[in-house]
Design goal:
With 222 residues, the chain is α+β, with helices and mostly antiparallel strands. The chain folds into two domains: 30 residues; 186 residues, 3-Layer(aba) Sandwich (Protein Transport Mog1p, Chain A). Helix content is 26%, strand content 33%. The longest helix is centred in the N-terminal third of the chain and has 25 residues. It is globular, with a radius of gyration of 23 Å.
Amino acid sequence: MEHLLSALALLCLLVQSFVTGARAESGPTNKPLTLAQVWSLDATYRDPTHGVTFRYPSVWRPTTELAFHAPALEHSFALPIAEFAYDEDGFPRDRAQIIGPYSSTNLEAVGILYSAINAPDMAKCREMAASLTSKDNNRHATVVFGGRSFFEFETGEDGMMQSISGSLYATYANHTCYLFETDVAVADDTTDIDHPLTKGRLRYIFAHLESIMKSVRISWPR
């Protein structure tokens, strides 16, 4: 009898411990992300097959879906090898849940995508990149990141009170066309938004996305 009572007491303690632990796990234990966390380039992506590395914020998550409107690389012949994003879970926003520094704004998500496809030369690489953008295909700039030249094309799509805009970068090496896309997705209807993104804050976001591109390195695969 004494052993039975001891066993029952132990069982009660285990059940109580389990319930207490479950309540603790279900509670609001995660703190909102800070601006520094969202933009700190404290993680490195590596693709040894194609010799690519770049830095990105460790709080961004791998994903295959950035926003309502898909980035150019997501619906093309050059499907992404990697995609990382910070998102605010879309709209309508849950005002009781603050995810990070952009929860009170109309930002939906920011992200970077990377792809690599075979190409015979730089001209074909530029042609393929131009075909992926919905903007004027003849308009592009040339930028230099990490000592390497890239063609830069504008990308974008809008509708259903949402829009996505960004840049598609293309460079050629190792018989390969390397494609990188950075995007910002926002809600266009800001009626119920506390603090719609200003032009200054958008410039800040695009500047930090460019910082990710400045970390891109491409070397000969071993």
